[in-house]
Design a protein that fits this description.
Elements: H1 10-30, H2 50-63, E1 79-82, E2 88-90, E3 99-102, H3 106-119, E4 131-135, H4 136-142, E5 164-167, H5 170-190, H6 196-201, E6 212-216, H7 223-231, H8 233-236, E7 238-243, E8 251-254, E9 260-261, E10 270-271, H9 276-289, E11 326-329, E12 335-338, E13 341-342, H10 349-360, E14 365-366, H11 367-374, H12 380-402, E15 410-413, E16 418-421, E17 426-428, H13 429-442, H14 446-459, H15 472-495, H16 500-513, H17 518-530, H18 534-549, H19 558-566, H20 570-578
Parallel strand pairs: 3-7, 3-8, 4-5, 4-6, 6-7, 11-17
Antiparallel strand pairs: 1-2, 1-10, 8-9, 11-12, 12-13, 14-16, 15-16
Amino acid sequence: MLPARGWISIGLAAAIAAIATLLRLQRRRHARLTFTTAASTAPHPAPVPPPLAHADAIGRRHLGLIDNNQPAHPTVPAPIGVDSNDTEVSLFRLPGSGLALDGEGAVPAARAVLAAVLTTGAADTASVRPVVVTTAALLAQLLPAGHPVVGLDPDGTAYDGERLIVLADTDAAVTYAEEEMTSRRRLLDTFDTTTIADLHARNDHAETPPPYVLLIEPATRHAGRVQAIATHRSALDLHPIVLGPHDNLPSIEITRDGTTRSDRPHPLHRVSTLSAEDLAAVLAMLTDAQARPEPGIDIDDPADTTPAAPTVEPCPVPLEDPSALVHLRVLGPVTVTTAAGPVTTGMRSGSYTVLAVLATHPAGRTLHQLTADLHPDVNPASAVKRVRTDITTARRVLRTATGHDEPMFIVFDPATGRYHLDPQTVTVDLWHMLTAINHATISDNDDETLAALRRATDLYAGDFAEGRDHAWAVDYATSYRHQILTAYARIAEILEPDHPDRAVAALERATDLDPVNEELYQRIMRIHGRQQRPDAVRRTLRLLEERLADLADAEPSQATRRVAERQLPPAVSRAGRTS
Protein backbone atom coordinates (compact mmCIF):
# COMPACT_ATOMS: atom_id res chain seq x y z
CA MET A 1 0.00 0.00 0.00
CA LEU A 2 1.29 3.50 -0.87
CA PRO A 3 4.09 1.72 -2.77
CA ALA A 4 5.87 4.86 -3.96
CA ARG A 5 5.73 6.64 -0.60
CA GLY A 6 5.88 3.88 1.99
CA TRP A 7 3.97 0.85 3.19
CA ILE A 8 1.13 0.84 5.70
CA SER A 9 -0.73 -2.02 7.30
CA ILE A 10 -4.43 -2.67 6.88
CA GLY A 11 -4.90 -1.53 10.47
CA LEU A 12 -3.43 1.91 9.85
CA ALA A 13 -5.38 2.18 6.59
CA ALA A 14 -8.55 1.43 8.58
CA ALA A 15 -7.67 4.13 11.10
CA ILE A 16 -7.18 6.65 8.28
CA ALA A 17 -10.50 5.56 6.77
CA ALA A 18 -12.18 6.10 10.15
CA ILE A 19 -10.90 9.68 10.24
CA ALA A 20 -12.10 10.19 6.67
CA THR A 21 -15.55 8.91 7.67
CA LEU A 22 -15.64 11.39 10.53
CA LEU A 23 -14.66 14.23 8.20
CA ARG A 24 -17.38 13.26 5.73
CA LEU A 25 -19.92 13.42 8.54
CA GLN A 26 -18.58 16.81 9.64
CA ARG A 27 -18.91 18.15 6.10
CA ARG A 28 -22.47 16.90 5.93
CA ARG A 29 -23.22 18.77 9.16
CA HIS A 30 -22.40 22.11 7.57
CA ALA A 31 -23.52 21.53 3.96
CA ARG A 32 -25.81 24.31 2.69
CA LEU A 33 -29.08 23.34 1.06
CA THR A 34 -29.06 25.87 -1.76
CA PHE A 35 -31.41 24.99 -4.60
CA THR A 36 -29.73 26.92 -7.41
CA THR A 37 -27.43 24.59 -9.29
CA ALA A 38 -28.12 21.83 -11.78
CA ALA A 39 -28.19 18.25 -10.55
CA SER A 40 -25.07 16.21 -11.20
CA THR A 41 -23.81 12.64 -11.21
CA ALA A 42 -20.45 13.84 -9.87
CA PRO A 43 -19.34 12.76 -6.38
CA HIS A 44 -18.70 15.12 -3.52
CA PRO A 45 -15.00 15.97 -3.11
CA ALA A 46 -13.29 13.44 -0.88
CA PRO A 47 -11.93 14.72 2.46
CA VAL A 48 -8.79 12.64 1.95
CA PRO A 49 -5.73 14.09 0.18
CA PRO A 50 -5.02 12.21 -3.08
CA PRO A 51 -1.91 10.42 -1.72
CA LEU A 52 -4.05 8.84 1.02
CA ALA A 53 -7.07 8.02 -1.14
CA HIS A 54 -5.84 4.47 -1.73
CA ALA A 55 -5.38 3.92 2.01
CA ASP A 56 -8.89 5.25 2.62
CA ALA A 57 -10.31 2.85 0.03
CA ILE A 58 -8.53 -0.18 1.47
CA GLY A 59 -9.28 0.80 5.06
CA ARG A 60 -12.94 1.45 4.40
CA ARG A 61 -13.33 -1.96 2.82
CA HIS A 62 -11.57 -3.55 5.80
CA LEU A 63 -13.92 -1.77 8.21
CA GLY A 64 -16.95 -2.94 6.23
CA LEU A 65 -18.53 0.51 6.46
CA ILE A 66 -22.11 0.24 5.27
CA ASP A 67 -23.89 2.71 7.58
CA ASN A 68 -22.78 6.13 6.33
CA ASN A 69 -24.48 7.90 9.25
CA GLN A 70 -22.17 6.54 11.95
CA PRO A 71 -18.47 7.02 12.71
CA ALA A 72 -16.18 4.03 12.28
CA HIS A 73 -14.48 2.17 15.12
CA PRO A 74 -11.34 0.21 14.15
CA THR A 75 -10.72 -2.74 16.43
CA VAL A 76 -6.91 -2.53 16.80
CA PRO A 77 -5.62 0.50 18.74
CA ALA A 78 -2.40 2.13 17.54
CA PRO A 79 -1.72 -0.41 14.74
CA ILE A 80 1.95 0.07 13.90
CA GLY A 81 2.66 -3.05 11.81
CA VAL A 82 2.15 -6.77 11.42
CA ASP A 83 3.69 -9.96 12.76
CA SER A 84 4.97 -12.88 10.69
CA ASN A 85 1.36 -14.05 10.15
CA ASP A 86 0.28 -10.60 8.88
CA THR A 87 -1.73 -10.06 12.06
CA GLU A 88 -2.00 -6.45 13.16
CA VAL A 89 0.27 -5.48 16.06
CA SER A 90 -0.73 -2.71 18.46
CA LEU A 91 1.88 -0.46 20.01
CA PHE A 92 -0.01 -0.68 23.29
CA ARG A 93 0.16 -4.47 23.38
CA LEU A 94 3.85 -4.94 22.65
CA PRO A 95 5.85 -6.90 25.20
CA GLY A 96 8.61 -5.19 27.11
CA SER A 97 9.08 -1.70 28.44
CA GLY A 98 8.91 0.40 25.28
CA LEU A 99 10.38 0.57 21.80
CA ALA A 100 13.52 1.95 20.16
CA LEU A 101 13.46 2.44 16.37
CA ASP A 102 16.73 2.31 14.47
CA GLY A 103 17.91 1.80 10.93
CA GLU A 104 17.27 3.31 7.51
CA GLY A 105 13.51 3.10 7.88
CA ALA A 106 13.30 4.41 11.44
CA VAL A 107 12.13 7.94 10.58
CA PRO A 108 9.37 6.80 8.16
CA ALA A 109 8.35 4.24 10.81
CA ALA A 110 8.20 6.92 13.50
CA ARG A 111 5.88 8.93 11.26
CA ALA A 112 3.57 5.94 10.93
CA VAL A 113 3.70 5.29 14.68
CA LEU A 114 2.67 8.88 15.35
CA ALA A 115 -0.18 8.59 12.83
CA ALA A 116 -1.32 5.24 14.24
CA VAL A 117 -1.40 6.54 17.81
CA LEU A 118 -3.23 9.79 17.06
CA THR A 119 -5.83 8.20 14.78
CA THR A 120 -6.73 5.72 17.51
CA GLY A 121 -10.12 6.29 19.08
CA ALA A 122 -10.92 9.38 17.01
CA ALA A 123 -14.61 8.46 16.97
CA ASP A 124 -14.68 7.05 20.50
CA THR A 125 -14.76 8.59 23.95
CA ALA A 126 -11.89 10.75 25.15
CA SER A 127 -10.62 8.01 27.48
CA VAL A 128 -9.31 5.98 24.53
CA ARG A 129 -7.88 8.86 22.50
CA PRO A 130 -4.15 8.70 23.17
CA VAL A 131 -1.92 11.66 23.96
CA VAL A 132 1.54 12.01 22.41
CA VAL A 133 4.31 14.13 23.89
CA THR A 134 7.27 14.94 21.67
CA THR A 135 9.78 17.69 20.92
CA ALA A 136 9.74 20.43 18.32
CA ALA A 137 13.00 19.19 16.81
CA LEU A 138 11.76 15.63 16.41
CA LEU A 139 8.40 16.65 14.96
CA ALA A 140 10.18 18.93 12.49
CA GLN A 141 12.27 15.94 11.42
CA LEU A 142 9.10 13.95 10.69
CA LEU A 143 7.24 16.70 8.81
CA PRO A 144 8.03 18.35 5.46
CA ALA A 145 10.63 21.11 5.56
CA GLY A 146 9.06 24.39 6.62
CA HIS A 147 5.83 22.81 7.83
CA PRO A 148 4.45 24.38 11.03
CA VAL A 149 5.57 22.43 14.08
CA VAL A 150 2.37 22.56 16.12
CA GLY A 151 -0.07 20.20 17.76
CA LEU A 152 -3.56 19.23 16.65
CA ASP A 153 -5.24 22.06 18.54
CA PRO A 154 -3.04 25.14 18.07
CA ASP A 155 -5.85 27.58 18.92
CA GLY A 156 -6.83 25.69 22.08
CA THR A 157 -10.50 25.22 21.22
CA ALA A 158 -10.94 21.43 20.97
CA TYR A 159 -13.16 19.86 23.62
CA ASP A 160 -10.56 17.17 24.30
CA GLY A 161 -7.66 19.59 24.60
CA GLU A 162 -4.30 19.03 22.93
CA ARG A 163 -3.44 15.43 22.04
CA LEU A 164 -0.10 16.18 20.36
CA ILE A 165 1.94 18.08 22.92
CA VAL A 166 5.06 19.65 21.39
CA LEU A 167 7.71 20.76 23.89
CA ALA A 168 10.97 22.62 23.53
CA ASP A 169 13.43 19.79 24.05
CA THR A 170 13.94 16.25 25.31
CA ASP A 171 14.45 17.35 28.91
CA ALA A 172 11.07 19.10 28.90
CA ALA A 173 9.36 16.10 27.29
CA VAL A 174 10.82 13.64 29.80
CA THR A 175 9.92 15.93 32.69
CA TYR A 176 6.36 16.14 31.38
CA ALA A 177 6.19 12.34 31.23
CA GLU A 178 7.56 12.05 34.76
CA GLU A 179 4.85 14.38 36.03
CA GLU A 180 2.24 12.30 34.24
CA MET A 181 3.71 9.15 35.76
CA THR A 182 3.46 10.64 39.26
CA SER A 183 -0.10 11.82 38.65
CA ARG A 184 -1.20 8.40 37.47
CA ARG A 185 0.45 6.64 40.37
CA ARG A 186 -1.38 8.90 42.81
CA LEU A 187 -4.64 8.24 40.99
CA LEU A 188 -4.17 4.49 41.34
CA ASP A 189 -3.37 4.90 45.02
CA THR A 190 -6.53 6.95 45.50
CA PHE A 191 -8.66 4.15 44.11
CA ASP A 192 -6.58 1.38 45.67
CA THR A 193 -5.83 -0.30 42.36
CA THR A 194 -2.65 -1.26 40.54
CA THR A 195 -3.11 -0.54 36.82
CA ILE A 196 -4.81 1.99 34.58
CA ALA A 197 -6.57 -0.91 32.87
CA ASP A 198 -8.13 -1.91 36.20
CA LEU A 199 -9.19 1.69 36.73
CA HIS A 200 -10.95 1.77 33.35
CA ALA A 201 -12.75 -1.47 34.19
CA ARG A 202 -14.49 0.15 37.16
CA ASN A 203 -17.68 2.20 36.84
CA ASP A 204 -17.71 4.00 40.18
CA HIS A 205 -15.70 7.05 39.09
CA ALA A 206 -15.11 9.40 36.15
CA GLU A 207 -11.31 9.18 35.96
CA THR A 208 -10.29 7.94 32.51
CA PRO A 209 -6.63 8.67 31.75
CA PRO A 210 -5.92 7.82 28.09
CA PRO A 211 -2.88 6.00 26.70
CA TYR A 212 0.18 8.23 26.83
CA VAL A 213 3.09 8.05 24.39
CA LEU A 214 6.48 9.71 24.86
CA LEU A 215 8.23 10.10 21.48
CA ILE A 216 11.79 11.41 21.77
CA GLU A 217 15.27 11.14 20.33
CA PRO A 218 18.01 9.32 22.25
CA ALA A 219 19.88 11.32 24.87
CA THR A 220 22.41 9.60 27.12
CA ARG A 221 21.91 11.99 30.02
CA HIS A 222 18.19 11.18 30.10
CA ALA A 223 18.54 7.41 29.67
CA GLY A 224 17.98 6.62 33.34
CA ARG A 225 14.88 8.80 33.55
CA VAL A 226 13.43 7.23 30.40
CA GLN A 227 14.11 3.79 31.81
CA ALA A 228 12.27 4.70 35.02
CA ILE A 229 9.24 5.70 32.96
CA ALA A 230 9.51 2.53 30.88
CA THR A 231 9.44 0.40 34.01
CA HIS A 232 5.84 1.52 34.61
CA ARG A 233 4.72 1.17 30.97
CA SER A 234 2.21 -1.60 31.48
CA ALA A 235 0.76 -0.47 34.80
CA LEU A 236 0.44 3.22 33.93
CA ASP A 237 -0.28 2.97 30.19
CA LEU A 238 2.84 5.06 29.47
CA HIS A 239 4.67 4.11 26.27
CA PRO A 240 8.17 5.47 25.63
CA ILE A 241 9.40 5.38 22.03
CA VAL A 242 12.92 6.45 21.16
CA LEU A 243 13.88 7.33 17.59
CA GLY A 244 17.37 5.90 17.64
CA PRO A 245 19.37 3.35 19.62
CA HIS A 246 18.60 2.94 23.31
CA ASP A 247 20.25 0.23 25.38
CA ASN A 248 17.48 -0.34 27.89
CA LEU A 249 14.48 -0.55 25.54
CA PRO A 250 13.53 -3.34 23.11
CA SER A 251 15.14 -2.22 19.87
CA ILE A 252 14.35 -3.08 16.26
CA GLU A 253 16.24 -2.18 13.12
CA ILE A 254 13.93 -1.09 10.33
CA THR A 255 14.82 -1.33 6.65
CA ARG A 256 13.64 1.09 3.98
CA ASP A 257 10.53 -1.02 3.22
CA GLY A 258 9.58 -1.41 6.89
CA THR A 259 10.90 -4.94 7.40
CA THR A 260 12.37 -5.37 10.88
CA ARG A 261 15.50 -6.99 12.26
CA SER A 262 16.21 -7.64 15.90
CA ASP A 263 18.78 -9.54 17.96
CA ARG A 264 15.96 -10.80 20.14
CA PRO A 265 12.56 -12.27 19.20
CA HIS A 266 10.06 -9.50 18.53
CA PRO A 267 6.45 -9.66 17.34
CA LEU A 268 6.90 -6.92 14.73
CA HIS A 269 7.79 -8.42 11.35
CA ARG A 270 7.06 -5.31 9.31
CA VAL A 271 6.14 -1.82 10.44
CA SER A 272 4.19 0.81 8.60
CA THR A 273 6.13 3.68 7.06
CA LEU A 274 4.95 7.10 5.91
CA SER A 275 6.41 9.99 3.96
CA ALA A 276 6.62 13.42 5.55
CA GLU A 277 3.85 14.69 3.27
CA ASP A 278 1.54 11.83 4.19
CA LEU A 279 2.06 12.40 7.91
CA ALA A 280 1.26 16.09 7.44
CA ALA A 281 -1.92 15.09 5.62
CA VAL A 282 -2.97 12.75 8.43
CA LEU A 283 -2.35 15.42 11.08
CA ALA A 284 -4.37 17.94 9.07
CA MET A 285 -7.27 15.48 8.86
CA LEU A 286 -7.10 14.92 12.61
CA THR A 287 -7.14 18.65 13.30
CA ASP A 288 -10.19 19.12 11.11
CA ALA A 289 -12.00 16.15 12.67
CA GLN A 290 -11.70 17.29 16.30
CA ALA A 291 -14.90 18.29 18.03
CA ARG A 292 -14.80 21.95 19.07
CA PRO A 293 -17.18 24.90 19.45
CA GLU A 294 -18.04 25.96 15.92
CA PRO A 295 -19.58 29.16 14.58
CA GLY A 296 -21.54 27.21 11.99
CA ILE A 297 -23.71 28.76 9.28
CA ASP A 298 -26.96 30.55 10.05
CA ILE A 299 -29.77 29.72 7.63
CA ASP A 300 -30.67 33.42 7.56
CA ASP A 301 -27.20 34.32 6.33
CA PRO A 302 -27.00 34.55 2.53
CA ALA A 303 -25.60 31.44 0.92
CA ASP A 304 -22.96 31.53 -1.78
CA THR A 305 -25.09 31.28 -4.89
CA THR A 306 -22.19 31.21 -7.31
CA PRO A 307 -20.11 28.18 -6.36
CA ALA A 308 -17.46 26.99 -8.76
CA ALA A 309 -19.22 24.62 -11.13
CA PRO A 310 -17.57 21.21 -11.22
CA THR A 311 -16.87 19.50 -14.48
CA VAL A 312 -19.72 17.04 -14.87
CA GLU A 313 -20.72 14.45 -17.41
CA PRO A 314 -23.98 15.09 -19.26
CA CYS A 315 -26.71 12.95 -17.74
CA PRO A 316 -28.93 11.14 -20.25
CA VAL A 317 -32.48 12.47 -20.21
CA PRO A 318 -34.74 9.40 -19.95
CA LEU A 319 -38.16 9.37 -21.53
CA GLU A 320 -41.16 9.86 -19.25
CA ASP A 321 -42.44 6.42 -20.29
CA PRO A 322 -39.19 4.62 -21.02
CA SER A 323 -39.27 1.72 -23.39
CA ALA A 324 -35.92 0.45 -22.18
CA LEU A 325 -35.54 -3.29 -21.80
CA VAL A 326 -33.75 -3.01 -18.46
CA HIS A 327 -34.58 -0.87 -15.42
CA LEU A 328 -31.56 -0.38 -13.16
CA ARG A 329 -32.05 0.91 -9.63
CA VAL A 330 -29.01 2.21 -7.78
CA LEU A 331 -30.74 4.43 -5.19
CA GLY A 332 -30.95 1.95 -2.36
CA PRO A 333 -29.84 -1.65 -2.99
CA VAL A 334 -28.74 -2.21 -6.58
CA THR A 335 -31.45 -4.13 -8.43
CA VAL A 336 -32.23 -4.95 -12.05
CA THR A 337 -35.75 -5.41 -13.42
CA THR A 338 -37.07 -6.39 -16.85
CA ALA A 339 -40.58 -6.84 -18.21
CA ALA A 340 -40.50 -10.34 -16.72
CA GLY A 341 -39.78 -9.00 -13.22
CA PRO A 342 -36.70 -8.63 -11.00
CA VAL A 343 -33.48 -10.36 -12.06
CA THR A 344 -32.70 -12.59 -9.10
CA THR A 345 -30.40 -15.30 -10.45
CA GLY A 346 -27.25 -15.55 -12.49
CA MET A 347 -25.89 -12.05 -11.83
CA ARG A 348 -22.53 -11.81 -10.08
CA SER A 349 -22.12 -9.39 -7.21
CA GLY A 350 -19.39 -7.72 -9.22
CA SER A 351 -21.75 -7.36 -12.19
CA TYR A 352 -24.19 -5.36 -10.07
CA THR A 353 -21.32 -3.17 -8.94
CA VAL A 354 -20.10 -2.55 -12.49
CA LEU A 355 -23.63 -1.47 -13.43
CA ALA A 356 -23.70 0.91 -10.45
CA VAL A 357 -20.36 2.47 -11.40
CA LEU A 358 -21.49 3.01 -14.98
CA ALA A 359 -24.73 4.58 -13.75
CA THR A 360 -22.64 7.32 -12.12
CA HIS A 361 -20.60 7.82 -15.29
CA PRO A 362 -23.00 8.11 -18.24
CA ALA A 363 -20.06 8.94 -20.51
CA GLY A 364 -18.37 5.70 -19.47
CA ARG A 365 -15.28 4.38 -17.71
CA THR A 366 -12.16 2.78 -19.09
CA LEU A 367 -11.20 -0.71 -18.00
CA HIS A 368 -8.38 0.77 -15.94
CA GLN A 369 -10.78 3.16 -14.18
CA LEU A 370 -13.21 0.35 -13.42
CA THR A 371 -10.49 -1.83 -11.90
CA ALA A 372 -9.17 1.09 -9.82
CA ASP A 373 -12.68 1.78 -8.52
CA LEU A 374 -13.68 -1.77 -7.74
CA HIS A 375 -10.48 -3.62 -6.90
CA PRO A 376 -7.91 -1.15 -5.52
CA ASP A 377 -6.15 -3.82 -3.46
CA VAL A 378 -6.04 -6.53 -6.14
CA ASN A 379 -3.25 -7.30 -8.59
CA PRO A 380 -4.06 -5.25 -11.73
CA ALA A 381 -4.02 -8.26 -14.06
CA SER A 382 -6.40 -10.16 -11.79
CA ALA A 383 -8.60 -7.09 -11.39
CA VAL A 384 -8.92 -6.74 -15.17
CA LYS A 385 -10.02 -10.37 -15.44
CA ARG A 386 -12.64 -9.86 -12.74
CA VAL A 387 -14.13 -6.77 -14.39
CA ARG A 388 -14.21 -8.44 -17.81
CA THR A 389 -15.97 -11.43 -16.28
CA ASP A 390 -18.47 -9.16 -14.52
CA ILE A 391 -19.28 -7.30 -17.75
CA THR A 392 -19.67 -10.53 -19.72
CA THR A 393 -21.91 -12.01 -17.04
CA ALA A 394 -24.11 -8.90 -16.92
CA ARG A 395 -24.63 -8.97 -20.68
CA ARG A 396 -25.45 -12.68 -20.70
CA VAL A 397 -27.91 -12.48 -17.81
CA LEU A 398 -29.65 -9.40 -19.22
CA ARG A 399 -30.04 -11.00 -22.64
CA THR A 400 -31.61 -14.06 -21.04
CA ALA A 401 -33.85 -12.00 -18.78
CA THR A 402 -35.10 -9.73 -21.58
CA GLY A 403 -35.32 -12.41 -24.26
CA HIS A 404 -33.29 -10.21 -26.62
CA ASP A 405 -30.02 -11.60 -27.95
CA GLU A 406 -28.78 -8.54 -29.86
CA PRO A 407 -28.37 -5.70 -27.32
CA MET A 408 -25.03 -5.25 -25.58
CA PHE A 409 -26.50 -3.25 -22.65
CA ILE A 410 -22.92 -2.36 -21.67
CA VAL A 411 -21.37 -0.79 -24.77
CA PHE A 412 -17.67 -0.35 -25.54
CA ASP A 413 -16.69 2.81 -27.42
CA PRO A 414 -13.39 2.17 -29.23
CA ALA A 415 -12.91 5.91 -29.83
CA THR A 416 -12.69 6.65 -26.11
CA GLY A 417 -11.80 3.22 -24.74
CA ARG A 418 -14.77 3.46 -22.36
CA TYR A 419 -17.57 1.14 -21.37
CA HIS A 420 -20.96 2.79 -20.82
CA LEU A 421 -24.59 1.85 -20.31
CA ASP A 422 -26.68 1.94 -23.47
CA PRO A 423 -29.43 4.52 -22.73
CA GLN A 424 -31.58 2.98 -25.45
CA THR A 425 -31.82 -0.33 -23.61
CA VAL A 426 -31.06 0.58 -19.97
CA THR A 427 -32.82 3.21 -17.88
CA VAL A 428 -31.56 4.23 -14.44
CA ASP A 429 -33.50 5.62 -11.46
CA LEU A 430 -30.61 7.99 -10.70
CA TRP A 431 -30.92 9.55 -14.13
CA HIS A 432 -34.68 10.01 -13.66
CA MET A 433 -34.12 11.61 -10.24
CA LEU A 434 -31.53 14.07 -11.52
CA THR A 435 -33.68 14.91 -14.53
CA ALA A 436 -36.60 15.73 -12.23
CA ILE A 437 -34.38 17.95 -10.07
CA ASN A 438 -33.06 19.74 -13.14
CA HIS A 439 -36.62 20.34 -14.34
CA ALA A 440 -37.45 21.85 -10.95
CA THR A 441 -34.45 24.19 -11.01
CA ILE A 442 -35.51 25.80 -14.30
CA SER A 443 -39.25 25.97 -13.65
CA ASP A 444 -40.79 29.28 -12.58
CA ASN A 445 -44.09 27.67 -11.60
CA ASP A 446 -44.36 26.44 -8.01
CA ASP A 447 -46.85 23.69 -8.87
CA GLU A 448 -44.57 22.33 -11.59
CA THR A 449 -41.55 22.64 -9.33
CA LEU A 450 -43.31 20.83 -6.50
CA ALA A 451 -44.43 18.01 -8.80
CA ALA A 452 -40.91 17.58 -10.19
CA LEU A 453 -39.34 17.56 -6.73
CA ARG A 454 -41.84 14.99 -5.50
CA ARG A 455 -40.93 12.77 -8.44
CA ALA A 456 -37.30 13.10 -7.42
CA THR A 457 -37.90 12.32 -3.75
CA ASP A 458 -40.13 9.37 -4.62
CA LEU A 459 -37.28 7.90 -6.67
CA TYR A 460 -34.80 8.20 -3.81
CA ALA A 461 -35.21 4.80 -2.15
CA GLY A 462 -32.00 4.98 -0.12
CA ASP A 463 -28.32 5.75 -0.31
CA PHE A 464 -26.56 5.05 -3.57
CA ALA A 465 -25.54 1.36 -3.85
CA GLU A 466 -26.80 0.78 -0.31
CA GLY A 467 -25.36 -2.31 1.35
CA ARG A 468 -22.17 -2.37 -0.70
CA ASP A 469 -18.95 -1.43 1.06
CA HIS A 470 -16.93 -0.27 -1.95
CA ALA A 471 -15.07 2.88 -0.93
CA TRP A 472 -15.57 4.51 -4.33
CA ALA A 473 -19.34 4.69 -3.71
CA VAL A 474 -19.35 6.73 -0.51
CA ASP A 475 -18.69 10.16 -2.04
CA TYR A 476 -21.26 9.50 -4.78
CA ALA A 477 -23.77 8.55 -2.09
CA THR A 478 -23.00 11.79 -0.26
CA SER A 479 -23.59 13.80 -3.43
CA TYR A 480 -26.94 12.24 -4.28
CA ARG A 481 -28.13 12.38 -0.68
CA HIS A 482 -27.25 16.07 -0.51
CA GLN A 483 -29.09 16.78 -3.75
CA ILE A 484 -32.23 15.10 -2.43
CA LEU A 485 -31.92 17.08 0.83
CA THR A 486 -31.98 20.29 -1.20
CA ALA A 487 -35.10 18.97 -2.93
CA TYR A 488 -36.84 18.42 0.41
CA ALA A 489 -35.74 21.87 1.58
CA ARG A 490 -37.24 23.46 -1.52
CA ILE A 491 -40.45 21.44 -1.08
CA ALA A 492 -40.72 22.82 2.46
CA GLU A 493 -40.21 26.38 1.22
CA ILE A 494 -43.07 26.00 -1.25
CA LEU A 495 -45.40 24.31 1.25
CA GLU A 496 -44.78 26.45 4.34
CA PRO A 497 -47.03 29.47 3.55
CA ASP A 498 -50.20 27.36 3.29
CA HIS A 499 -49.20 24.02 4.84
CA PRO A 500 -46.55 24.52 7.56
CA ASP A 501 -47.07 21.07 9.07
CA ARG A 502 -46.49 19.43 5.71
CA ALA A 503 -43.36 21.53 5.32
CA VAL A 504 -42.09 20.28 8.69
CA ALA A 505 -42.91 16.69 7.69
CA ALA A 506 -40.84 17.07 4.50
CA LEU A 507 -37.87 18.37 6.47
CA GLU A 508 -38.20 15.65 9.09
CA ARG A 509 -38.14 13.07 6.31
CA ALA A 510 -34.90 14.68 5.18
CA THR A 511 -33.41 14.37 8.68
CA ASP A 512 -34.14 10.65 8.52
CA LEU A 513 -31.94 10.53 5.41
CA ASP A 514 -29.20 12.68 6.93
CA PRO A 515 -29.45 12.97 10.74
CA VAL A 516 -26.50 15.38 11.07
CA ASN A 517 -27.19 18.21 8.61
CA GLU A 518 -27.71 21.23 10.86
CA GLU A 519 -29.50 23.40 8.31
CA LEU A 520 -32.41 20.95 8.22
CA TYR A 521 -32.92 21.41 11.97
CA GLN A 522 -32.58 25.19 11.62
CA ARG A 523 -35.32 25.17 8.99
CA ILE A 524 -37.60 23.03 11.18
CA MET A 525 -37.06 25.26 14.22
CA ARG A 526 -37.74 28.37 12.17
CA ILE A 527 -41.11 27.02 11.00
CA HIS A 528 -42.03 26.01 14.56
CA GLY A 529 -41.04 29.48 15.72
CA ARG A 530 -43.28 31.15 13.17
CA GLN A 531 -46.11 28.90 14.35
CA GLN A 532 -45.47 29.89 18.01
CA ARG A 533 -44.38 26.40 19.09
CA PRO A 534 -41.48 26.91 21.55
CA ASP A 535 -41.70 23.35 22.89
CA ALA A 536 -41.28 21.99 19.36
CA VAL A 537 -38.25 24.25 18.87
CA ARG A 538 -36.64 22.86 22.02
CA ARG A 539 -37.47 19.26 21.05
CA THR A 540 -35.85 19.76 17.66
CA LEU A 541 -32.68 21.19 19.19
CA ARG A 542 -32.49 18.33 21.71
CA LEU A 543 -32.86 15.80 18.91
CA LEU A 544 -29.94 17.37 17.06
CA GLU A 545 -27.86 17.37 20.26
CA GLU A 546 -28.52 13.66 20.74
CA ARG A 547 -27.62 12.80 17.17
CA LEU A 548 -24.44 14.87 17.18
CA ALA A 549 -23.33 13.35 20.49
CA ASP A 550 -22.62 10.15 18.56
CA LEU A 551 -20.45 12.13 16.16
CA ALA A 552 -17.28 12.13 18.28
CA ASP A 553 -19.00 14.18 21.00
CA ALA A 554 -19.87 17.05 18.63
CA GLU A 555 -22.38 19.73 19.60
CA PRO A 556 -24.69 22.01 17.61
CA SER A 557 -22.93 25.04 16.21
CA GLN A 558 -23.32 28.51 17.67
CA ALA A 559 -25.33 29.49 14.59
CA THR A 560 -27.85 26.69 15.15
CA ARG A 561 -28.28 27.68 18.79
CA ARG A 562 -28.86 31.30 17.72
CA VAL A 563 -31.55 30.16 15.28
CA ALA A 564 -33.24 28.24 18.12
CA GLU A 565 -33.01 31.22 20.46
CA ARG A 566 -34.62 33.55 17.94
CA GLN A 567 -37.67 31.28 17.78
CA LEU A 568 -38.30 31.41 21.54
CA PRO A 569 -40.18 34.16 23.40
CA PRO A 570 -37.77 36.52 25.21
CA ALA A 571 -38.63 35.22 28.69
CA VAL A 572 -38.19 31.60 27.61
CA SER A 573 -34.96 32.51 25.84
CA ARG A 574 -33.51 34.14 28.98
CA ALA A 575 -34.52 31.16 31.09
CA GLY A 576 -32.82 28.85 28.64
CA ARG A 577 -29.60 30.80 28.96
CA THR A 578 -29.80 30.89 32.73
CA SER A 579 -30.34 27.14 32.95
